[in-house]
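Item description
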Amino acid sequence: MREPPKVKICGITRLEDAELSVELGAWALGMIFFPDSPRRCSPAEAERIAAALRRKVELCGVFVNAPLEQVVARSEALELSLLQFSGDEGPAFCAEAARRTGARVIKAAQVSLAGDVRDLERFHVDFHLLDARAKEPGRQGLRGGTGETFDWTLVSARRSKVPLILSGGLNAESVGAALELTHPYAVDTASGTEAAPGRKDPRRLREFFAAVARSAEPAEPASATEPEPEPPPAPEPSSASESPSASELPAEPEPAPQSASEPPPAVVGGPA
């Protein structure tokens, strides 16, 4: 059985959701520090989450075009181990953030064309994250958490060896098919495990982790209860085999031995 991908739970805003995610096996928790996001995590709650879980899980701060000094200050205050940049940050910005914080860097890109996938190759960071570009009116300014997927076959355009994190509308129903096509290092879910923006649904969280685990299981063999195929009919005997063999015929009785006291039989028609 192959190893299932790691799971990053993003859009965490409450300690109880963070704790359940870790209990279920999360590799990383994403806390969004983009002011315009409906899943923005407050500084106070981020501190509670970091204090409780920093030694149990990767803590990821998600930023969108934030000033470098703000990124560094937030990373140091929370002891973040991952920084995710989901805006227009360039390769030099990502490299400097990594140098100044010591955190590993995820560069995220919204995907609608193969060129969007290839453009990430200029970012020599620790992870690449592919997300969906929102198509619905009113959502096009969102950076993640749109609930929309992208064409997963576009991942085949990727030539980079940087580990891939797959995102974009993933939930318990869709993640299995996505994994069959893309085989990423990790999967990322936000809206697909929510009851409302920023509030996780425990049932949907559990179902998502179960679906990811199933993706690593081998295909089940045919059920033992299925009827076995009937054997082919025995060939009919040939005409030669229909006649009994010599060994099967009853033996003819041998003539009884002649007694010495009995006269020899008379000869009929002999000479006078």
Remarks:
- The first strand starts at residue 6 and ends at 10.
- The mean pLDDT is 85.
